Amino acid sequence: MATPQTHLYDTALLDRFARVTPQTRLLDLGYYDPAGALWAAEHGAAVTALRPSIDLIVELDLAARHRRVRVDARLATSLGSSDWGSFDAAFLIAPFFLGNTPVRNAIDLVSQALTPAGTLLYQAHRRHGADTFMKYARERFERVDQVGIGTHQCRLYQATGPIPATASAATTDPIEHVLTVRQTSIRLQLGAGVFGARGIDPGTTFLLQTAEIPAGVSVLDLGCGAGAIGIHLASEDRRRRVVMTDVSQAAVELASANAARNNLDRVRVLVSDGFAAIARERFEVILSNLPAHRGPVDDPSLAEGLIRDAAAHLNEDGNAWFVVNRSRGIELPAARAFRHVEIAAQNARYKVVRCASPRPTRSTRHG
Ligand SMILES: C[S@@+](CC[C@H](N)C(=O)[O-])C[C@H]1O[C@@H](n2cnc3c(N)ncnc32)[C@H](O)[C@@H]1O
Q1: I need a labelling partner for 228 at 20 to 30 A (CA). Which of 85, 88, 96, 291 fits?
Q2: What does residue 346 show for φ and ψ, rounded to 5 degrees?
Q3: In DSSP terms, which residues pair with 180 in a beta bridge?
Q4: Kind of pairing between the strands at 184-189 and 176-181
């Protein structure tokens, strides 16, 4: 799926303050922007870049090939213990838009990854994230200083003297959240940089309250996050064949753990960018609390692409149910892909759109 590139780094700040040589082993956690990893690779550093989802790996890989540099891009948000204490430097743009947990996890990770003389350079996007960073960085580093201010008032901080977090440092929210809809209750752990880290999304609950899902059908939870939708529907009727997918590895790991927590051993949970990993499958029901942002950037094309592709993976007599913020206009893209589109329910914040009777796509028309 085509996605716009996100630019968060002010590389002029890196030019002024980052000390990188061909001997430097650098860990890049600039998740949503390849610029830091590319900058370091172009200055000769051996760069390991951790990314939480496949699309971000692909974006980084393509950009690195284009610039003819090498980056070791890994689909991961943590490092094995064999990598601890082995990096000379780290770049971090905290994903402030995901909440505090990913910032804390990233700082814990960097404190383990760096050598004792290693340096963390952190760029806060405008004013966002600076306070959270300072709070956690001061727990994990002996010294934290602001070193520069760049365009759009972004700030660059330097942290030295890592105090490694213990291996047992929490990476997930240990609290269990309970979701009850139509007398079925499920238990979910949230957190670890996955959507809805601070609580079950009210849009998700509204979708589950609204959608009418027959017993025994095949169900796709598209963009499953921590798994609330798929796990609820599988728990409500164990004869349903439930598949859950998300582009984020962290989400898939959390959703799998949550399925096990609810004693569901038959749901399938897969990493998939849109329908890429389930290209040949069709479902009687598709549900999605549609993604609205790519990283911090509002991106309606994400939801529109998923709606379009859902039509090609829905049975002719099936239903797709989408929940979005009430101000989002998804009806028009939905009407291009489905003959029947209706607002099934709306409240002050959300609307649930039901789509049926998929229009033939080029492949179904001819094949
Ligand atoms: C609004 S969240 C909903 C999460 C979960 N279903 C819930 O209700 O809490 C949207 C989810 O879609 C995922 N996502 C974004 N782009 C995607 C893509 N191209 N393919 C699959 N999942 C995607 C995000 O990682 C995120 O978990």
Answers
A1: 96
A2: -145, 150
A3: 185
A4: antiparallel
Q: What separation in Å is there between the alpha carbon of 77 and the centre of ligand 1?
A: 17
**Region 137-150: what's the mean pLDDT?**
90
- Work out the average pLDDT over 360-367: 54
Atom of ligand 1 nearest to the CA of 274: 20
Strand, coil or helix: 165:
coil
| Chain Cα centroid distance, residue 292 | 12
Q: What residues flank ligand 1, with Cβ below 6 Å?
A: 1, 195-196, 201, 204, 223-226, 228-229, 245-248, 251, 272-274, 289, 291, 302
φ and ψ at residue 70, rounded to 5 degrees = -110, 130
Going from the Cα of 195 to the center of ligand 1, the distance in angstroms, rounded, reads 7
For the chain, count helices (H), then strands (E).
Answer: 11, 18
CB 55 within 8 A of CB 62: no
CA distance 181 to 210: 10
Residue 5: DSSP 8-state: P
Rounded to the nearest angstrom, the gap between the alpha carbon of residue 122 and the centroid of all alpha carbons in its chain is 20
Compute the distance between CA of residue 344 and CA of residue 214 in angstroms, rounded to an integer. 16
pLDDT, one tens digit per residue, over 86-132 is: 999 999 976 556 667 778 888 989 999 999 899 999 988 766 667 77
Distances (CA, A) of 266 to 213, 238, 263: 18, 9, 9
DSSP 243: E
Condensed to tens digits (0 to 9), the pLDDT of residues 186-227 reads: 999 887 577 877 788 999 999 999 999 999 999 999 999 999
For the chain, percent of residues with pLDDT exceeding 70 = 90
Residues 6+ apart with CB under 8 A from 208: 179, 181, 182, 228, 229, 232, 233
- 294 — pLDDT class (breaks 50, 70, 90): confident
pLDDT tens profile 251-289: 998 999 999 999 998 899 999 999 999 999 999 999 999
Phi-psi region of 230 (alpha: psi -120 to 50; beta: other; left: phi over 0): alpha
Q: How far is CA 128 from CA 10, 29, 124, 153, 327, in A?
A: 15, 17, 6, 10, 25
Asked whether the beta carbons of 20 and 47 are under 8 A apart, the reply is no
